[in-house]
């Protein structure tokens, strides 16, 4: 049985909501498309994985990005439209990649996942690093172009091209839904 996984990266309040510490304004436009993909993946028996940034109050990353996604705060929670449902997997990460220091690889392999579809923010940071780590682990990786966004458009475009060079396929959500 072929099992695919939809990874929803960092669609949490501190990145998506207006006025949030690391607000990615275009992220709000992604929410309905990602929710539609998640529903379709669940219907098909595929896995939906929520990969969230979550930091201790003294995390050194705050020197780079400022305080965000602190454990136990509302900002570290998913936006309401993308809350996990029964059967979904939640992975909390402390670094850019969803694989670094987490159980994600084990969780995917134990469910026989071979294909990963990446959505979320930021295209040039957490999506990019998760993509690279997935490719190095032998997964077939798809980046859903109309379901990712960054703080800067130029960085977003660079990351999409770079992930393609690394071996990922960049697709639109309609292609995934028609799959």
Please explain how this structure is put together.
The protein has 179 residues and is an alpha/beta fold. It has seven helices and six strands. The chain has helices spanning 13-16, 27-43, 62-65, 104-109, 123-136, 153-166, 173-178, and strands spanning 3-9, 47-53, 89-93, 113-121, 140-149, 169-171. The protein has a six-stranded parallel β-sheet. α5 packs parallel to α6.
Descriptive labels:
single chain; about 180 residues; alpha/beta; globular
Basic shape:
globular
DSSP helix fraction: 25-40%
Order of helices and strands: EHHEHEHEHEHEH
The Rg value, from CA coordinates, equals 15 Å
Number of strands: 6
- Sheet/helix structural class: alpha/beta
Largest sheet, in brief, is:
6 strands, parallel
Q: Layout of helices and strands, plus pairs?
A:
Blueprint: E1 3-9, H1 13-16, H2 27-43, E2 47-53, H3 62-65, E3 89-93, H4 104-109, E4 113-121, H5 123-136, E5 140-149, H6 153-166, E6 169-171, H7 173-178
Parallel strand pairs: 1-2, 1-4, 2-3, 4-5, 5-6
Short description:
The chain has 179 residues and is α/β, with parallel strands linked by helices. It has 7 helices and 6 strands; from the N terminus they run E-H-H-E-H-E-H-E-H-E-H-E-H.
């Amino acid at each position: 049985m072929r099992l695919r996984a939809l990874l929803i990266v960092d669609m949490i309040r501190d990145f998506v909501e207006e006025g949030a510490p690391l607000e990615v304004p275009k992220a709000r436009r992604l929410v309905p498309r990602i929710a539609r993909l998640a529903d379709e993946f669940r219907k098909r028996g595929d896995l939906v994985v929520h990969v969230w940034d979550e930091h201790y109050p003294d995390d050194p990353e705050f020197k780079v990005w400022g305080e965000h996604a602190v454990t136990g705060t509302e900002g570290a929670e998913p936006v309401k439209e993308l809350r996990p449902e029964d059967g979904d997997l939640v992975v909390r990460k402390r670094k850019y990649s969803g694989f670094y220091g987490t159980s994600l690889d084990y969780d995917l392999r134990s469910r026989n996942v071979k294909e990963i579809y990446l959505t979320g923010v930021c295209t040039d940071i957490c999506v990019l690093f998760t993509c690279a780590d997935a490719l190095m682990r032998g997964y077939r990786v798809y980046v859903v172009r109309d379901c990712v966004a960054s703080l800067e458009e130029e960085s977003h475009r660079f990351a999409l091209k770079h992930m393609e060079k690394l071996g990922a396929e960049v697709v639109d959500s309609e292609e995934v839904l028609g799959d």
